[in-house]
Amino acid sequence: MDENPISALIEEYITNRSVARLEKFDKATEKKKRLVGSDDLEAVARFDLDSAEQRKIELDRYRCNAWLSDAAARAGQINMVTHAPKYTHGDARGSGVLDDDTIESLQIGQLCLCTAAVANPTIDVVGNAAALDVASLLKLNAGRDSLIQQIALDDLSALAPFGDDQKQIEDWAAGFRRALTPQEISSHKLSKQLYFPVGANKYHLLSPLFASSLTDVVHQKIIAARFSDEAKVIRKLKKEQKYSDKVSVDFFDVAVQTFGGTKPQNISQLNSSRGGKAFLFSTQPPTWEAKLKPPQNTANAFWKTLERDRGGYTIIRAFLRYLEQIENLPSTVQRREKRAGFVDELTGSVLQYAAEIQSLPNSAGWSTDSRLPREEQLWLDPHRLDEEFQIERDRLDWPDKIANRFGSWLNGHLNYSKSLAFSDVEYDEWRGALIDDLEVMNR
């Protein structure tokens, strides 16, 4: 039977930890030795002897057999999870959950966004931060299942080269399995809790947990899209308006939520690796844009739509309020210009709305069944394939009629004022403001 490749990774992992620990020990020893003083040879010799014995103890601790025994004893201090409790509150002491369900096992749609949709979720770790070295050991993998996954399936071949006998190997496995299942499943007063009705005066008490593994997948995708070398090259080409056969990926309206403050490791191992940050996507409902349709159902459809949906009524109301404010004030250039500004805003709305109707794709001839006045049909449906219609349109008497309708429409609204009266003088001014623009637009 071939040796499990994870065995080599275990030995390498423990060796690297041993090297790092001994380097730290040697530096500390050298620093302490300077304080002994070189003149007292007996004290120096005693210090060297004590240091050598202590170094041997440290070295023995990092021999594979001894280190694995210690790690198995400490494994119960951590919990391997996909959903962690402390994201709700840093002091929550509840249990986490390791969810190994898949889309297939849950029989849900492929487009469902959940941990089960992630093919190989990164396992998170919660518990005593001092035991995270055990978690790193259990997450070792060599292109197959991780060490802890093999142990969960009773495959102990990765541990076999290091044990004195089968019993010791099984004891290690039993210790490591404690990282998979907490000794006592519990919630906590600082966790979120929901009473979910299941019948008359019957409830399930639910404790929602933060999907840390799913969050990590999203985090990695966003980071790669923003900061990977490939993404930088694509963005540079896009900025220079050059072609690229790669897709530029952007995430909009993304918020960042932080967990753990200055000690993100207290929340979970993955939270620490993310610097305590988690990205949040906007869940606001979409803003629907109304589909533009020709105003053809009533004779006043164009003007009613202009008032209701194109801001016309809002402009008129502000215009009327201003006219009432300056009713008894002397006429000045500034006041006349502001009044003209309101009229320009209205004529601009009229012409903009008309231009959008005229530009509707594949709509030529829509006015055939319209109830609009003839002049508005000639104005708003310029591409109608009707020879008589086009001849009539070329006579150019319709812009004057449109301007008349605009003057009457605006006067009709302004005459709602209790203190002002608008007559033919104002009517001529309003219609004159539109007629020139209509003729320019038609040309």
The gist of it:
Helices cover 51% and strands 7% of the residues.
Radius of gyration: 39 Å
The main β sheet shows up as: 2 strands, antiparallel
Order of helices and strands: HHHEEHEHHHEEEHHEHEHHHHHHH
Roughly what is the average pLDDT, rounded to an integer? 88
The amount of beta strand, in percent, is: 5-15%
> Biggest sheet, strands in spatial order?
1-3
User: How many extended strands?
Assistant: 8
Number of helices: 17
The N- and C-terminal alpha carbons lie at a distance of: 89 Å
The shape, in one word, is: elongated
Q: Which structural category fits the helices and strands?
A: mainly alpha
Uncertain regions: pLDDT < 50 for 5+ in a row? none
Helix fraction bin: 40-55%
Layout of strands and helices, then pairs:
Elements: H1 5-36, H2 41-61, H3 64-74, E1 78-81, E2 83-84, H4 103-106, E3 124-127, H5 132-138, H6 147-152, H7 166-177, E4 194-199, E5 202-206, E6 210-211, H8 212-227, H9 229-239, E7 255-258, H10 269-273, E8 277-280, H11 301-309, H12 312-325, H13 333-358, H14 374-380, H15 387-394, H16 398-414, H17 424-442
Antiparallel strand pairs: 1-3, 2-6, 4-5, 7-8
Helix pairs in contact: 1-2, 3-7, 8-9, 12-13, 13-17, 14-16, 16-17
Please, could you describe this protein's structure?
By secondary structure, the chain is mainly alpha-helical. The chain contains 17 helices and 8 strands. It has helices at 5-36, 41-61, 64-74, 103-106, 132-138, 147-152, 166-177, 212-227, 229-239, 269-273, 301-309, 312-325, 333-358, 374-380, 387-394, 398-414, 424-442, and strands spanning 78-81, 83-84, 124-127, 194-199, 202-206, 210-211, 255-258, 277-280. Helix 8 (212-227) packs across helix 9 and helix 12 runs antiparallel to helix 13. The longest helix is centred in the N-terminal third of the chain and has 32 residues, at 5-36. The chain is elongated, with a radius of gyration of 39 Å. The protein starts with a helix and ends with a helix. The model has no long low-confidence stretch (mean pLDDT 88).
